[in-house]
């Protein structure tokens, strides 16, 4: 990274730390799946914090719990349409689906009943479950976005029931250690920042508590360092290692609900916050706990991401800071597209390429470098989708209108592709080809002037 870019990044975090009066602030930039820059301002125990200093992540914990749930789904142990009752019987939340809990569309209350859980020692799941009644359902399930910390307490218990171990033990074994995140923990160890409240009208501090949240811990318990959070940011951007398939993480990043329905600048996927800012689409999560603020965001198109953490209860524009760091890097050192190079292509797929017609609308089918197919209108406007091979002649739609739909290739006796069946839409080599099973048939008199 150029020295001038590093200076601009340092200036941005220095301005934020001084202007918001944060006791300390650390940040980093991710590119190509790697932490390429990190910086710090302020002090922790009289020393400048570094890449080994832990800060509390708050609700970024939720995204990691969501990854565990998606692992269970990919293994066939749960379905996202399952109700919680199927796996955690007897709870008042049993009628809610796993997908609704992941996307904050369950309608369940935001905070657990009783004392505010973020500043009080929490009981176990049984105690939390006992406190939940029908009155904790604030909205009709599926009707709207309503952020719920309680919902993630329930998802942590779901993981524990199926794995037969605590949610964090499962997270450490299945996600954190495989990703090299060995400094992400439920309680601080070694070098770490203390959480502070900054007086609004004087430059003095008050220590904040950080008790174990018990059954609510999956909603915001974890601590991490800049390198660990940077690795998680790369994961969200698609560098998933063997923890999840990239397609699954892309599913987590897909919009499930919108927070600000009139403008769609903020929404939620499956365990991930989604934002649109200056033409960028960002995915990740923010976090706040008494004494701490944190954020992790990545531009899913370029793979450039940023992390930021501060040990202050309020006042730091932590999300906007991360957005600005991404914007600075992309503006000062725009990512270059990968150089085009020829790729290995299964020769059998070449016969599928070229011009196809849906009715009279021409489409082009291309083979992509990763072996997927791309079907798109020849004029570039309209329904376009990529497809992944499933088995035999079947391909699965990955995005756009045909996401989840099956494209089936039909061949003649000599193996030549003659038409495509895409969810009952027939694509033929010629417009309304009489050799293809065009729905409703083709007028036998053929094309004519009138």
UniProtKB/TrEMBL annotation:
<feature type="domain" description="Beta-lactamase-related">
    <location>
        <begin position="16"/>
        <end position="327"/>
    </location>
</feature>
<dbReference type="GO" id="GO:0016787">
    <property type="term" value="F:hydrolase activity"/>
</dbReference>
<dbReference type="InterPro" id="IPR056008">
    <property type="entry name" value="DUF7586"/>
</dbReference>
<protein>
    <submittedName>
        <fullName>Serine hydrolase domain-containing protein</fullName>
    </submittedName>
</protein>
<keyword id="KW-0378">Hydrolase</keyword>
<dbReference type="InterPro" id="IPR050491">
    <property type="entry name" value="AmpC-like"/>
</dbReference>
<dbReference type="InterPro" id="IPR001466">
    <property type="entry name" value="Beta-lactam-related"/>
</dbReference>
<dbReference type="InterPro" id="IPR012338">
    <property type="entry name" value="Beta-lactam/transpept-like"/>
</dbReference>
<dbReference type="Pfam" id="PF00144">
    <property type="entry name" value="Beta-lactamase"/>
</dbReference>
<dbReference type="Pfam" id="PF24491">
    <property type="entry name" value="DUF7586"/>
</dbReference>
<feature type="domain" description="DUF7586">
    <location>
        <begin position="345"/>
        <end position="429"/>
    </location>
</feature>
């Amino acid at each position: 990274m150029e020295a001038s870019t590093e200076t601009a990044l340092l200036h941005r975090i220095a301005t934020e730390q001084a202007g918001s009066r944060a006791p300390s602030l650390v940040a980093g930039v991710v590119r190509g799946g790697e932490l390429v820059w990190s910086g710090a301002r302020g002090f922790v125990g009289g020393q400048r914090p570094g890449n080994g200093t832990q800060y509390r992540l708050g609700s970024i914990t939720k995204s990691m719990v969501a990854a565990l749930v998606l692992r269970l789904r990919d293994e066939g142990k749960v379905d996202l349409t399952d109700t919680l009752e199927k796996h955690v019987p007897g709870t008042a939340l049993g009628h809610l689906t796993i997908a609704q809990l992941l996307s904050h569309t369950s309608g369940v209350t935001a905070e657990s009943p009783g004392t505010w859980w973020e500043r009080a020692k929490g009981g176990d799941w049984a105690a939390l479950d006992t406190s939940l009644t029908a009155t904790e359902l604030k909205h009709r399930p599926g009707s709207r976005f309503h952020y719920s910390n309680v919902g993630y307490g329930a998802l942590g218990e779901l993981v524990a029931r199926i794995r037969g171990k605590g949610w964090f033990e499962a997270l450490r074994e299945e996600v954190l250690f495989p990703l090299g995140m060995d400094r992400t923990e439920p309680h601080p160890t070694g070098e770490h920042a203390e959480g502070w409240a900054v007086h609004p009208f004087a430059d003095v501090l008050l220590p904040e508590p950080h008790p174990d949240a018990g059954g609510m811990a999956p909603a915001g318990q974890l601590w991490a360092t800049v390198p660990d959070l940077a690795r998680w940011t790369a994961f969200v951007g698609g560098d998933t290692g063997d923890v999840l398939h990239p397609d699954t993480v892309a599913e987590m990043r897909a919009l499930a609900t919108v927070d600000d329905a009139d403008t769609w600048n903020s929404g939620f996927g499956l365990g991930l916050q989604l934002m649109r800012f200056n033409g960028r689409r960002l995915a990740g999560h923010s976090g706040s706990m008494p004494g701490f603020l944190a954020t992790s965001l990545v531009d899913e198109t370029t793979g450039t991401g940023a992390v930021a953490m501060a040990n202050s209860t309020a006042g730091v524009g932590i999300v906007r800071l991360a957005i600005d760091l991404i914007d600075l890097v992309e503006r000062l050192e725009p990512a270059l597209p990968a150089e085009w190079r020829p790729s290995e292509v299964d020769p059998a797929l070449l016969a599928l390429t070229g011009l196809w017609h849906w009715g009279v609308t021409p489409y082009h089918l291309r083979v992509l470098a990763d072996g997927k197919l791309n079907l798109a209108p020849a004029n570039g406007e309209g329904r376009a989708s990529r497809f992944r091979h499933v088995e035999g002649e079947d391909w699965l739609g990955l995005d756009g209108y045909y996401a989840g739909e099956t494209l089936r290739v039909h061949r003649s006796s000599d193996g030549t592709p003659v038409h495509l069946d895409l969810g009952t839409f027939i694509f033929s080599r010629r417009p309304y080809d009489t050799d293809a099973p065009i729905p409703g048939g083709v007028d036998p008199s053929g094309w004519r002037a009138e």
